[in-house]
Amino acid sequence: MRIRRHTTRSARFVLVTAGILLLTGLTAPAVTAGEYPFRDPRLPLGQRVDDLLGRLTLDEKVSLLHQYQPAIPRLGVGPFKTGTEALHGLAWSTDITSSPPGAVRTATATVFPQAIGLGSTWNPELIKRVGSVVGDETRGYHAENPVVWGLNTWAPVVNLLRDPRWGRNEEGYSEDAFLTGQLATAYAGGMRGDHPHYLKTAPTLKHYLANNNEIRRTQTSSNVRPRLRHEYYDQAFKPAIAANAATGVMSSYNLVNGRPMTAHADHNDVVRTWTDQTLLNVTDADGPNNLVGSQDYYDTKAEGNAATLKAGVDSLTVDSADPEPTRRSIHEALGRGLLRESDVDTAVRHILDVRFRLGEFDPGGGPYGGIPRDVVNRPEHQRLARQAAAEAMVLLKNDGRTLPLDPGRARNVAVIGPLADTLYTDWYSGRMPYQVTPLDGIRDRLGSGATVTGTEAVDRIALKEVRTGKYVTAGTGESGAKLTVDGASAGESGQFDVFGWGHGRLTLRSVANGKYVERADFTAVSPFVNQAPQPRDWFVHQQFTFEDAGDGTHVIKYVGYETPEDWDGPNHYLTVAADGTLVLGSPDAAGAARFTKETITGGIDSAVDAATGADAAVVVVGSMPFINGREVHDRTTMALAENQSELIKAVRRANPNTIVVVENSYPTTLTWEQDNVPAILWTSHAGQETGRALADVLFGDVNPAGRLTQTWYRSDGDLPDLLDYDIARTGRTYQYFDGDPLYPFGHGLSYSGFRYDGLRLASPVVAGDGTVRASVEVTNTGDRAGDEVVQLYTHQRFSRDPQPKRELHAFQRVHLRPGETRTVELTVPAAELGHWDVTRGRWVVEASMHDVLVGASSSDIRQRAAVYVQGERIPARDLSASIRAIDFDDYAGVDLVDESKARGDAVAGGTGDWIRFADVDLGSGAATVTARVARAAAGSGSVEIRLDDPVRGRTAGRVDVPSTGDRYAYTTVTGALTGASGRHDVYLVFTGDLRISTFSLRR
């Protein structure tokens, strides 16, 4: 419903509150605005929060711990919900008033490039503007329906893109922690607004922590040793929290070192130490139930929810729109002594703090309460979407100045490919208000006097069922109809366009109405309907493969995503029902209907026809975001779909002036294309203005300056196991990769050239608490204005500990006119050149020489200098005090595990596994080894102390580890040492399955 606006702020507040209560089926309370102190904006925030908190009953406080916080009519408090998705534009939310409750409502709002695309702009100022628009449009929808469109926004995603096969790669910014932190702070800061106290929206960072795989995502544990934890994974989250740009984090599904992040104490122990502001932390959807379900970590929901709250997570996103299980479990936890009322008060205080800062309890909704619904998709937002899409595009290759195209000469252009005339949304996208496809954009740019030929270059086919000799037909209306084997000929209703997305997966678009064929329901025998506007939804029911039946015919297998709890049907192959309906009716190919596939028009043929003789052929290929990896589905390859590769090759043979546009969300192995195609341009799925932005870049109205935020590898074989999170040991990301990348981190070309001269440092020596100040002259040597992204990397030459090959520490996107020279100044606090010292459990800035490397990418370094940092030296290691086993220097085979369910890390090993402690000073001799160990299995194990080598090194001692009966039941064991003196690397070598939390080698 629309809430009528009045001119007085107090009257407007009363009407808004009444409207909220009506939307939730409640009656308006008999209270007057401003009756209670908590409604007085003149009072300090803490006093207002305490006043409201003190008026709540225990039942009312418990009710606020679920995602859907009900109204409290007696106090005039309206409902509140956490979680409006806003990753690259206002996307969707859930509606408690729907039937059934919790239905998804998708917004029609400005759709910006995917997060990976926004990241490739390397432009925090632009990204902050985008975030501000998203905040405004969220407020606009909230003004219309505050029950559905909550102001707690779940964005940005700041998980590091350490592996490009992650199905959710599109949601993150970069593989680099520093860059991610800068961009996340910008986007969240825009959504938050610039008011010193009030919030436009309350951004929540996703997903804390070390979450970069979808396979078994609630069950896999990310092994994260302390150095990588502090130097890499935490650094993506910390900046936005420390800058007060974000108001909390969402816990991730995975475990870290054996403990589920849903109930991980680091939400309190780490995240809250980054800021003095109050944070509202939330769980991911159904995370609390995983604790007693797939993770089997707690026996009851009462235990799991109590642990989650005590760990510092305040709001439980669970059981969809039904808060009752949460309420019951919290009351049970209170009754069992697992929680105290003060624990509930702490979480509720965090929740209320954010609600107050959103202006909920102020007359008029606070300074952002007046943003109207008509702010959505305003012309200035459309212009910003176009600018962002253009700035995000990355020119990967441009031989012979193929680009930009001259609009005066390129008058006959072929626009070819499966993404040439369509735009796709993704799971976390809103609905586009309008769509400008690549074909649209190029046609608009060239105008009516040019010839622009468009073809999607896909096969158009008809399917004739062998038994009856009849064709499969589809409905011609907007909603389509059940596919039926009843056609006497392959007319328009019997034709389908076949889109290939790799691994033989196909989608079928009906020519009859332009809609995609999808499985209609979850029944065991399911019909198929041509009704989907695009491949979509959680299970993506629009996917098929054609299998050769061996006699020139085919059977069709349905390969949409499903899970057993949603569908128990045994059938995956299509058959024909008695009434001629095409249904899901056979478990195997033997029982499937057989079809002859008649090609009406061939995709490659149409592409070649269009490309032949054209002034330029623009081939637009890429991914379908719901198919080529997404939430719950990782990729197995970074390659283009096979049919798309063949398309590019065919067009290149037909037209030497071929430009390939890759529109996807992840690094791709374009090795053939790099060797054979003159120009390659990459873009993410860039939203409603994709086509105009692409034309801007292709025809030189915008000089491309996007830069890659991930390493692009040459082959899938360049990557280690997806589940190995130790990027240093496995050589992942630009910081540690030893190979030759296809395109390096930071890469991107321009239509201009840029010369770097005269790198200067303010001083060749910097104190450990000082600042490295660098300046470099950058000149545009081209004939057109353009942006250059100046990047500063460092490398520490000498260290006790292994260091990254290079590490980004500063960047600046600068605009230069032709011939213009600018002095670019870049600063790096010396503290940021430090690393985590595992020997003492703290940050250290070592005394060392650092290379300062400035250039156009991580591999294109144009200027070098060196600075000596006057830090400290890490002394030889002392193991005489109790040492955490996880603070090792190196390891083989071990797992990192939870010492207890509440806190602490331990090391779990089996026979032959080891951990190393480097450069240990044993002095004149250590005589005793003491270790805190656990062994769940029967029988005993042991830990040997070896010097300098885990296999051939001399054995200095050993401790036997008895069975303790439980992985959390630790005991202390001791053993004698002999010959353990002087400086050595000390190895702890395991025999049998056991855990070790701490140990010491004492004199």
From TrEMBL:
<dbReference type="InterPro" id="IPR005084">
    <property type="entry name" value="CBM6"/>
</dbReference>
<dbReference type="InterPro" id="IPR013783">
    <property type="entry name" value="Ig-like_fold"/>
</dbReference>
<keyword id="KW-0732">Signal</keyword>
<dbReference type="GO" id="GO:0046556">
    <property type="term" value="F:alpha-L-arabinofuranosidase activity"/>
</dbReference>
<dbReference type="InterPro" id="IPR026891">
    <property type="entry name" value="Fn3-like"/>
</dbReference>
<protein>
    <recommendedName>
        <fullName>Exo-alpha-(1-&gt;6)-L-arabinopyranosidase</fullName>
    </recommendedName>
</protein>
<dbReference type="InterPro" id="IPR001764">
    <property type="entry name" value="Glyco_hydro_3_N"/>
</dbReference>
<dbReference type="InterPro" id="IPR036962">
    <property type="entry name" value="Glyco_hydro_3_N_sf"/>
</dbReference>
<keyword id="KW-0378">Hydrolase</keyword>
<dbReference type="InterPro" id="IPR006584">
    <property type="entry name" value="Cellulose-bd_IV"/>
</dbReference>
<dbReference type="Pfam" id="PF03422">
    <property type="entry name" value="CBM_6"/>
</dbReference>
<dbReference type="Pfam" id="PF00933">
    <property type="entry name" value="Glyco_hydro_3"/>
</dbReference>
<dbReference type="InterPro" id="IPR036881">
    <property type="entry name" value="Glyco_hydro_3_C_sf"/>
</dbReference>
<dbReference type="GO" id="GO:0009044">
    <property type="term" value="F:xylan 1,4-beta-xylosidase activity"/>
</dbReference>
<comment type="function">
    <text>Catalyzes the hydrolysis of a non-reducing terminal alpha-L-arabinopyranosidic linkage in ginsenoside Rb2 (alpha-L-arabinopyranosyl-(1-&gt;6)-alpha-D-glucopyranosyl) to release alpha-D-glucopyranosyl (Rd). It is not able to hydrolyze alpha-L-arabinofuranosyl-(1-&gt;6)-alpha-D-glucopyranosyl (Rc).</text>
</comment>
<dbReference type="InterPro" id="IPR044993">
    <property type="entry name" value="BXL"/>
</dbReference>
<dbReference type="GO" id="GO:0008422">
    <property type="term" value="F:beta-glucosidase activity"/>
</dbReference>
<dbReference type="InterPro" id="IPR002772">
    <property type="entry name" value="Glyco_hydro_3_C"/>
</dbReference>
<dbReference type="InterPro" id="IPR008979">
    <property type="entry name" value="Galactose-bd-like_sf"/>
</dbReference>
<dbReference type="Pfam" id="PF01915">
    <property type="entry name" value="Glyco_hydro_3_C"/>
</dbReference>
<dbReference type="GO" id="GO:0045493">
    <property type="term" value="P:xylan catabolic process"/>
</dbReference>
<comment type="similarity">
    <text>Belongs to the glycosyl hydrolase 3 family.</text>
</comment>
<dbReference type="GO" id="GO:0031222">
    <property type="term" value="P:arabinan catabolic process"/>
</dbReference>
<dbReference type="GO" id="GO:0030246">
    <property type="term" value="F:carbohydrate binding"/>
</dbReference>
<dbReference type="Pfam" id="PF14310">
    <property type="entry name" value="Fn3-like"/>
</dbReference>
<feature type="domain" description="CBM6">
    <location>
        <begin position="881"/>
        <end position="1002"/>
    </location>
</feature>
<dbReference type="InterPro" id="IPR017853">
    <property type="entry name" value="GH"/>
</dbReference>
